[in-house]
Amino acid sequence: MSVRVRFAPSPTGYLHIGGLRTALYNYLFAKNQGGKFILRIEDTDRSRFVENAMEGLIEILNWAGILFDEGPGVGGDYGPYIQSERLEIYKKHANLLLEKGNAYYAFDTSEELEAMRKKLQEKGLNPKYDRKTMKNQFTLSETEVKQRLNSDEPYVVRLLVPDNYKVHFNDIIRGDITVDSSEIDDQVLLKSDGYPTYHLANVVDDYLMKITHVIRGEEWLPSTPKHILLYEAFGWDLPKFAHLPLLLNKDRSKLSKRQGDVAVEDYRQKGYFKEAIINFVALLGWNPTGDREIYDFQELIDSFKLEKVNKGGAVFDIEKLNWMNFQYLMKKDTKELAIQFKTILIGKGYPEFSNDYLEKVIKVHRERVTFLHQILDFCPYMFQKPEKFDKEYFEKYWKDYSLAILKELLIKYSKIDNFVHDDLHKATLETASERGLKLKDIIHPLRLVITGRSAGAGMFETMEILGKNECLSRIQYFIDNYEKNTLVF
Prior knowledge:
The protein is mostly helical. The protein folds into 5 domains: 4-71 and 199-248, HUPs (Rossmann fold, 3-Layer(aba) Sandwich), CATH 3.40.50; 89-196, CATH 3.90.800.10; 257-328, CATH 1.10.1160.10; 332-374, CATH 1.10.8.70; 385-483, Arc Repressor Mutant, subunit A. The chain is built from 20 helices and 12 strands. The protein has helices spanning 17-32, 53-64, 87-100, 110-122, 142-150, 198-208, 224-234, 264-269, 274-282, 297-303, 318-331, 334-347, 355-365, 374-378, 391-397, 402-414, 421-434, 439-451, 459-466, 468-483, and strands at 4-7, 36-41, 81-82, 103-106, 156-159, 166-171, 175-180, 188-190, 213-217, 240-244, 247-248, 314-315. The strands form 5 sheets. The chain has a 3-stranded parallel β-sheet with strand order 1-2-3. Helix 9 packs across helix 11.
């Protein structure tokens, strides 16, 4: 049978980084096996529904390159499966369970259920539903049940968990697991509002969509015995299960907003490359070899094995993600980076620079930053003339002879036809030698004049990129304002 997997998020907000890993592992497994990856939106819990969250989830998955293969609709215009559009399917299957005696009606109010749970907790017992004392088909007469149903009294449909039964399944990651039915609650399958619970809709859809492998987070492991009971009640074959390890903070606590960002969108907005995020997330609990950290998407697909996923929680190390982003910044084609950087600059209100110019700026400065957008913070002087100058740097390196040297350099630089690193270096070195100075005695004040700052890329590389006219203009500006005592520090 061809492999079919699904990613089934709830539209309750931004896509969690753990959700991205679940989607990614499903996608990698499907593509490795030549199978299909399906997207299903599980929106049956209307109390948690967030407007436009589904569109945001899909947009992030598309951005990350995790594209689903099928859904309702025609051709390339199909969308994801949406559970709220399939309510009649779930009602039909709930009724089928009622007819077979694997489910039952219950009429308890929320207050009665809360009182029951409190009473059981006070006795130190598991606060699961007590079908022997509550209002349901087992404590009410058949006539009374019919009367309640006919009078439109609110009710739910619950799963009838068999007594003295062992639920057994094999998890690809965790091995054999057995759970006694005494630990399983008579789970609500159909709520009083007519919507199914996650458990019923999940199982019905996985079966109807011919899902072969259910790959999901460890937090769903306690629900799996309930799902297996449903499969058995319907008489359906089980899919294979694989429950992924938790994502952890550095202190080994569960990854949460309390210790940092958890939404993929947050990392995207901060300027992380999608390739870095995908590479990093893929290695949260799995690594093809253990002796490498950087993999392209196709390598991840070719190498992925569910059996190699770790059982233990995976630590989300932001420093490692930053390192990965730097690796991708260094290896990416500068033409692609220039296009992205132009968008950043325009968004900040800067004029439009040529792609060729931006490529040169990126080549010289990318090894000094972690994110593409940080180039603007590191060297704003590449995009506008400095209007303020580092006072501490000025006081440390400006000497009595510095103004005279600047005027000499202005003349020498104006005579250079090929305004490139080597010729600039030669002219500046000649000036230093003529005055019995070291090159650094000129470079430091020259950097201040050209950039306004104390640090940056190589001075002559910077000047070559800025160009002859711009550099001469900046030197003249500094001389004029120095002589008029109008420099701003």
